[in-house]
Amino acid sequence: MKKLSKISISLFILSFLFVAVGVQAQTYVFNSNLTIGSTGLDVVALQTFLESQGNLVMPYGVSKGYFGNLTRNALAKYQASSGITPAVGYFGPISRSKVNSVAQNKSTFTLIPASGITTQIKIDYSVCKAETESVSFGLGHTVFKFSGIANGKCNFQYGTEIENPMWNGAMSDSCSVPISIGAKTYEVGNMGVAMNDLQSYCSKI
């Protein structure tokens, strides 16, 4: 009976396995210099980028597309934090190169559990940092950890586990199922990693 229960639990757990597929996010490539008075899609893209970096907050009701003092100040703040000099809010070749590099190093991991629920995690490989470190779905969750950049590579440590609550008599018990426990190193910008290699079964009853 106990053996049968373990098998049932294993089958239950297997139903929640997922894979993580990395796809290159659609990025905007900047080719033009921008300054006070500039308008158009380039400005919209720059403002969107500055928002994503936490340097710009567009006022309520103000549309994107015009390069004014607000955008200039936000760009100067980003330039200063990125070591770009002079940090005066002019979007020239140096700033374009930096922003294009950062944008192209972002990928999106799509988690596809067996339940059919899809969750996306954006990962910035230029700093080896996940914008979302923990994602929950159904009865499980997964956690991504990054240890930083070394020798031009992104050290991506993934100790992914699914936790399924199971009923044990009169109390609810929690059981962790490790998947692909360990550390992997990827080149910056690597776009894929499979995490459906089940290492062990949960035998907690």
UniProtKB/TrEMBL annotation:
Highest taxon, organism lineage: Bacteria
Transmembrane segments: none
Entry-linked InterPro entries: Peptidoglycan-bd-like, PGBD-like_sf, PGBDSf
Name of the protein in question: Peptidoglycan binding-like domain-containing protein
Start and end residues of each Peptidoglycan binding-like domain: 40-85
Lineage of the species this protein comes from: Bacteria, Candidatus Vogeliibacteriota
